[in-house]
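Regression test case RT-17, inverse folding.

Input:
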């Protein structure tokens, strides 16, 4: 794709003890799971989709935990 820059040093988008997300200048997002060292290479649209999916899942889990606590 001519509108994308060539591959180069990654910018860190997010990092915590569980996951590290970086982005290549070409646009590819790398999601590395710290626990097993697996890296997913995805595009920004996938990042959005995956994030929304995880947020929905977390909502459900916390909802359930809330019910259990109360
Ligand atoms: Zn790249």
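Golden output:
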């Amino acid at each position: 794709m001519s509108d994308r820059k060539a591959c180069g040093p990654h910018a860190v988008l997010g990092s915590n003890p569980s996951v590290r997300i970086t982005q290549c200048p070409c646009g590819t997002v790398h999601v590395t799971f710290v626990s097993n060292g697996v890296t997913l290479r995805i595009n920004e649209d996938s990042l959005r989709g995956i994030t929304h999916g995880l947020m929905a899942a977390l909502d459900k889990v916390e909802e359930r935990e809330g019910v259990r606590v109360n």
